[in-house]
C-alpha cells in the first residue's frame, strides 16, 4: 500500500524530468533540420547539405539571418579545367582545403579572419549557353548561428548583349566569430534581365538618343575632342579615317574598335 501511494509522486517526478530534456537546447531553423546529422550537413559532409530548391520560405529561408559581405578577389584566377567539369558548391575554411580541392595556391584569402566560398555549375553541364555566369548571390549566417547559408545562381545570358562566360566564382567572406558547424546551399538560377529599348554595339548598350548622338560624335568630333574623351592613337585614326559613317554599327564593326571605344563614344556624344 505504501508503494501504491508513492506511484503518483514518482510518475510526476519522471514526467517533469522528461519535460526538462525536451525543451533543453536550441530549436533549429527550417533550413537546419537536415543539418542535425553532421555526416550529412557538416563542414566536411558530402555536398555540404545542399538544397536544390529556390531560396524561398519553402526551402529554409531565414529572414533574420545575418548577411556576410562578399569580397571579390582582384585579378584573374585560373583553375584547372578538371576542377570545374562538374558542379561544386563549397565553403572552404582553410587554405589547405581550398588548395587541395581546386589545385591552385591560396589566391590571397586570410583564413585567420576569412572563409572562401566557391561555385561552379560544371563545364560538362549540357544546358550552358554562351555568356553564362556563375554567381554567388548571398552568404548568410542563420539566426541560431548554427548554419552558414549560401545562395548560388547560374545566370544564363539569354538574348542580352554578348559577354564573356564566367564558369566559376570564388569570394571571401568574414569568418564568423563563432563558426557555424553546418553549411546549407540554395539555388536561384535565372536568365539575365536585359534592359529594353536599347541597341548593343560591341556589348555596350545605347538608347536611340545615345546612338544618334554617338554617331554624330564619330562624324563631327575634332581630334582634340576625341583625345579628351580618351579615344587616341589607332582608334582615333579609325574614327576620323572612316568618315562619313552611315551607322554606329559600322563604327563598332570595324577592326580595331571595341567596347572601350564604344563606351567613350557614348559619353562623347552627350554634347553633340
Tell me the layout of helices and strands.
Elements: H1 2-23, H2 38-41, E1 50-54, E2 66-67, E3 71-72, E4 88-92, H3 95-102, E5 114-120, E6 133-141, E7 147-156, E8 169-174, E9 182-187, E10 190-191, E11 199-201, E12 204-206, H4 208-220, H5 223-228, H6 233-241, H7 248-252, H8 259-268
Parallel strand pairs: 1-9, 7-9, 7-10
Antiparallel strand pairs: 2-6, 3-8, 4-5, 5-8, 6-7, 11-12
Helix pairs in contact: 4-8
Comma- or semicolon-separated keywords:
272 residues; 2 domains; six-stranded mixed sheet; 8 helices
Alpha carbon gyration radius: 28 Å
> How many structural domains does the protein architecture include?
2
| SSE pattern, N- to C-terminal | HHEEEEHEEEEEEEEHHHHH
Output mean pLDDT.
Answer: 81
What is the helix tally? Answer: 8
| Distance N to C terminus | 107 Å
Helix share bin: 25-40%
Instruction: List the uncertain runs.
Output: 1-60
Beta-strand proportion: 15-25%
Largest sheet: 6 strands, mixed
Record field, number of beta strands? 12
Determine the structural class based on helices, strands and strand pairing: alpha/beta
Principal-axis shape: elongated
Amino acid at each position: 500500500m505504501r508503494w501504491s501511494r508513492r506511484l503518483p509522486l514518482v510518475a510526476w517526478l519522471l514526467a517533469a524530468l522528461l519535460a526538462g530534456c525536451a525543451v533543453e537546447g536550441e530549436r533549429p531553423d527550417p533550413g537546419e533540420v537536415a543539418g542535425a546529422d553532421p555526416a550529412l550537413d557538416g563542414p566536411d559532409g558530402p555536398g555540404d547539405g545542399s538544397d536544390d530548391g529556390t531560396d524561398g520560405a519553402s526551402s529554409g529561408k531565414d529572414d533574420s539571418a545575418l548577411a556576410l559581405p562578399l569580397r571579390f578577389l582582384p585579378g584573374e584566377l585560373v583553375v584547372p579545367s578538371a576542377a570545374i567539369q562538374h558542379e561544386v558548391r563549397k565553403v572552404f575554411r582553410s587554405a589547405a582545403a581550398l588548395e587541395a580541392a581546386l589545385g591552385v595556391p591560396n589566391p590571397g584569402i586570410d583564413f585567420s579572419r576569412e572563409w572562401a566560398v566557391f561555385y561552379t555549375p560544371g563545364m560538362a553541364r549540357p544546358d550552358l549557353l554562351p555568356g553564362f555566369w556563375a554567381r554567388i548571390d548571398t552568404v548568410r549566417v542563420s539566426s541560431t548561428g548554427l548554419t552558414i547559408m549560401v545562395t548560388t545562381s547560374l545566370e544564363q545570358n539569354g538574348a542580352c548583349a554578348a559577354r564573356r562566360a564566367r564558369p566559376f566564382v570564388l569570394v571571401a567572406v568574414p569568418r564568423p566569430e563563432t563558426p557555424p558547424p553546418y553549411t546549407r546551399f540554395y539555388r536561384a538560377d535565372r536568365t539575365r534581365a536585359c534592359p529594353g529599348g536599347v541597341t548593343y554595339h560591341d556589348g555596350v548598350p545605347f538608347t536611340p538618343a545615345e546612338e544618334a548622338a554617338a554617331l554624330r560624335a564619330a562624324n563631327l568630333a575634332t581630334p582634340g575632342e576625341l583625345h579628351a574623351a580618351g579615344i587616341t592613337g589607332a582608334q582615333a585614326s579609325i574614327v576620323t579615317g572612316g568618315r562619313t559613317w552611315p551607322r554606329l554599327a559600322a563604327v563598332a564593326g570595324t577592326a580595331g574598335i571595341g567596347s572601350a571605344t564604344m563606351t567613350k563614344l557614348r559619353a562623347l556624344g552627350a554634347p553633340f
